Queue: 2 jobs
Job 1
Amino acid sequence: MPLPVLEEARDSFLNFSGSGMSILEISHRSKWFDGVIDDAGTRTRRLLGLGKNFHVLFLQGGASLQFSMIPMNFLGGGSTADYVNTGTWSSKAIKEARDLGKSIHVAASSEDRDFRYIPKNISFNQEAVYAHITSNNTIKGTQYSSFPNTGGVPLVADMSSDIMSRPIESDKFGLIYAGAQKNLGPAGACMVIVRDDLLDRVPETLPSMLKYTTFVSTNSMYNTPPCFAVYVVQLVLKWIEETIGGLSNMASINRKKAGALYSVIDASGFYRGTADSDSRSSMNVTFRLPSESLEQAFLQEALNSGFGGLKGHRSVGGCRASIYNATTLESVEALVDFMKEFERKNG
Ligand SMILES: Cc1ncc(COP(=O)(O)O)c(C=O)c1O
């Protein structure tokens, strides 16, 4: 989380916006919270360049609930959707849709090489209601450098681990979703951006809490929203706009950070990147060392030097530097120095 955001949130703990109440105490039916959620939506629209035909929602249930809500809302009456399988999260999205009995076609997959790459030149079924991708694969460290051409089929993207990290061509998308807890704020809120025309597909018979239309018609306040999480998302968006200067600047900082780490890896016979170079992520840099015992030593020494959280996801092992938006270039440069020194001593 960016430090200025934490500082402002800290101050709002005691007195939010002159209300005399904590941000944790204000009602979601108050003018104060209206200001928060409206500003978060407006900033999202500005940052992503969203047209008037998009709705910005704040839901609960994490990105994982979206794996089910998307097919429930859009795939009625025997219609079908395409999915690209690029790892754990895409596989879960496919499984959830299939468990609902929906017709899902896997248009492309990188499973043949352990999800080390992003498939190219994918041909999408033009009858599909949507084409689902995971824009950044948090565990395997791969990311779409540009979004696929679907020939007009709306893209549905899980952007949980790279939303707001770079500008996007928003008119390609039918729906974007992201659990807040990486680039947007604390756990507890999930941002969903949905294009108006897709809402015509939402079946009336779905439970209210599972219908996008419920949240569109109530400004995400059908029931009590995750107020504090939405508030911190608002602060993060303000930081991106006002301190960073927008998504082009954010992307250039992110490129510098990732570039610094990949150059150490590329120049080394000691560290080995696990993603193909044309598919690698600017958010999660995944790499291995020559042996598991060296990896253990690396992780321990890194921790002792103040670099926590470098262990790869429990399902794949190895090492992973997650360098989300709030990670500073200075801290990445310090990690680069540490990695060079560790290689010098152990290589
Ligand atoms: C790309 C991606 N999708 C989905 C999820 C699941 O998110 P949540 O825990 O909000 O359900 C994650 C979590 O790390 C993720 O990285």
Job 2
Amino acid sequence: MPFSRRPKIAIFVAALFSAVPLLFPSIDFAKAQTAGAAQKPTRQSRSLRSAASDRRNQQIARLVQEIDARNIERSIHKLVSFGTRNTLSTQDDPNRGIGAARDWLFSEFSKVAESSGGRMIVEKQTFEQPKAARVPQPTMLTNIVATLKGSQPESSERMYVVSGHYDSMCTSPTDAKCDAPGANDDASGTAAVLEMARVMAKYKFDATIVFMAVPGEEQGLLGATDFAEQAKKNNLDIEAMFTNDIIGSSLGGNGIHDPHSVRVFSEGVPSNETPAEATTRRSVGGENDSAARQLARFIRETAAAYVPAMKVMMVYRRDRYGRGGDHIPFLERGYPAVRFTEPNENYQHQHQNVRVENGIRYGDLPEFDDFNYIANVARVNASSLAMLALAPARPKNVVVVTARLTNDTDLKWDANKETDLAGYEIVWRDTTSPVWTNSKTVGNVTSYTMKGLSKDNFFFGIRAVDKQGSKSPVSFPRPVR
Ligand SMILES: [Zn+2]
């Protein structure tokens, strides 16, 4: 029952802030979606859905539509045409190897940048990777980085990164000669990022968006690690990072065809949590409330509004079981990051020499990709990136003040600095709920008391809202006496 926990404090709030608060009905996209998909919609779920579409940002709705599966298909065929994109493969052959892929990507992103009116800068960021487990000799690696500068002075230093890895491998990660088409792993992610850049370069955003294609993933997340490490050294304010890796197929090795789901993996306990933070977490909870987890919830809500054909399946795990991806070096350095991956993988089509064995076709070939599916995953990405870069920053220094023992919850946070800020929303949920179920608009204030809702029984968070209604991800508070 979505309306069950509306607080009875309207009069108190109005008196306190001399503004009539908008008491939003609690929004539960999960229930609305499930109701819409699986059974006859109830009166409530239908009204929640139309309310959500009324608040849609037209710029986001437009750019989602402009993403074109045919461009993604062309890019994947081109990337596959380089034969192999193994990180150790040749760098000076114009037609084969990772060097050819690097130069083609640089030229494609550069073409895209022409439509940005000088706001998008494309760079080759090259570094020498020393010998490592899967790097037998020092090797030059090049990240292709297209930065679309934000247009709002208060927000242009705030950055969102979306990436795919353009390297590929056959059965052996150090075989630089074998054919490694990598159509799914990860031409799919790379092509999706290029298409997002093409569409989004024409639009203005408050904050900065970085579209990136990196090598060295199969060699140990090397390109992403170098970027994240440089970002940390230079104190870059990366507020979110998405890696798109294996987003190519809607048909799994288990025979399940599911073109309407994408998995979003998010860690619960931060990879960079300090011992002191762990002590606090054990005392107040928060195992499911890292910044990465808030990002996953944000993606799920945004996709429900802008890409209703797709269901975001949140997986409460850093990555697939025991496996890794390019978001991890970001998480390890304190940057919120998530991984997008197709719902059911087919292991005969990844990290395999191209061959037929006992009638089974092995290899990561373009014919196993579903280009319309990839376009829909790109739309899920693009809608969230756009919302992130249009919305205010997530509130900073959010705390639950524990100075008094009370059945209320006292919240405090720092004021945002954006000039188009409208105010804040407090969200909350049962401790056992996977998603935020309730929200309340509290105006442009920096503290608020949730009367009659105890921090013992609920989790709370704060998000910032601008005058167009664009909302930041939720910030989860820490306790302060
Ligand atoms: Zn991959």
